[in-house]
Design brief:
295 residues; eight-stranded mixed β-sheet; 11 helices; globular
Length: 295
Amino acid sequence: MEHRIILETLRWLEELGTQRRLVELHLTRFFTTVRLDDDSVGVCMSYYSLLSDDVLRILERRLARHCSNPISVKDVEGIKAIVAEHVADERQRCYLVASLMAGVTSALSAPLIRSGGDEWFEVKPHLPENWLNGAETALVVGFGGYLKHLVHQRDLKKVHVIDFSYESSGKSSMWQAQIAEWSAQHTTKSVIGSNGLTNTFHLREFDLICITGSTLCNGTLEYFLTNVRRDATVVLQGPSASLHPKILFKAGVKWVSTIMTPSILGQLCRGRHDGEEMRPMLEDGLPYIHLFPRL
């Protein structure tokens, strides 16, 4: 799994002199949540769903102690070693470490996002009217985000959503029924859902690509950014995407649509590892903001 963007963003924030200690950590099967000593909160989707409450509880305590000094990139190897002591499955280990580092990076980015941006980006409350930029085909990575809005856009001739659990999760029947309903409503448009694309050439068919921020922690974001058409419009979206966008912009992301994570979020999952108390807030319970390159 590749997590270059998280580490480069964390390294760049460190070079800015952004030094904070982790004071609260919650490893839940929904989102990983961290709170720093300035009360900034960061979140990232969790993919380590196979780990027990007991293992998560132990790791919360050990990792919080390890990160009690100002967090830096050099802490990553120590974090990996701690996780490896308690998690045998390599994939689950990678997911947990990536979610934690993305959450930390998100929390470190939060003050700059709250202040409206810096020399690299600006925060806007709304998208520009021409945000589709003439696109006729759109790919949505992750069920949700802009999907519903794009399906109803008249100018789009094809909307394809991919989600690795499209045919296997508990929501698969609901998702497939929704795709069938949209296809019936828009008979002149191709509306498709699947687990993934057949190859990289298929990826290059799309003018607009909206990628869930959770790809930051499941190791797939770099794949999409490397293989899209150079003239495609790429958007990163969702709560997991709330990091300083300088490195994302350099990698080809045109803008980021995300949220400002409230400090109360960490309190909602204290003592629990299912993360369900956060769901109403993180699933369309907070207004979106948009991070654009500063011109």
